[in-house]
Amino acid sequence: MKRFLSTAALILIYASVLPVSSFGNGEDAPVLSKPEIMTKALDKVNEIQEFLDFYEMYPDAKFLLAYSSTFDEPRVEGRTLINGRYSFSVGITFSVEADGTLKPQESVSFKLQEINRVRKEKDGVFALFENEWDLTREEFYSLLKSEGDFAAIGFDLVADRPVRNVDKYWEEMSG
């Protein structure tokens, strides 16, 4: 199988700075570090066709690993910027099982968000979203078939009005 994503493709990690002592259920759960979790999550998304298709359609997409040490649930998302105005993403959340394996907690999700404006604050650059749509798997594959034409699935995207400073937000979000 062709492997599109590598550890280098994961560009942002939201995680606590404390070391992870154990994951999963029970005292005999294996000890896994965050880099091990990141690698396992990446291995898993390389087995998920929707992620491979997303990356093939959007080779410049940014892949992120969001990790909650409270819930021991890593989430991997792929995001791309469209027309300087929309963020399109694919994502999945995993649970860490007692044996250290990762198990998908949900089906793959697809989300289109319209960025309304970008605000620069002292602790970063943030996007404010005006609209948000969850796409179905069928809509994603229709989009794929139409080579990324959102009109094919009923979305008439604004093409000629990029959001001011969206490049600064995207750069910061991309690490």
Key phrases:
175 residues, alpha+beta, seven-stranded mixed β-sheet
What do these coordinates show?
It contains four helices and seven strands. The chain is α+β, with helices and mostly antiparallel strands. The protein has one domain. Strands 1, 2, 3, 4, 5, 6 and 7 form a seven-stranded mixed beta sheet that branches. Strand 3 and strand 4 form a beta hairpin. It is globular and about 50 Å long. The N terminus is likely disordered.
Tell me the radius of gyration.
Answer: 17 Å
Sketch the topology as an H/E string, one letter per element.
EHHEEEEEEHH
Strand segment count: 7
Stretches with pLDDT under 50, minimum 5 residues: 1-26
Shape: globular
Helix content: 10-25%
Structural class by secondary-structure content: alpha+beta
Count of separate structural domains: 1
How far apart lie the N and C ends?
29 Å
Count of separate DSSP helical elements: 4
Report the portion of residues in β strands.
25-35%
Average pLDDT confidence is 80
Sheet of most strands: 7 strands, mixed
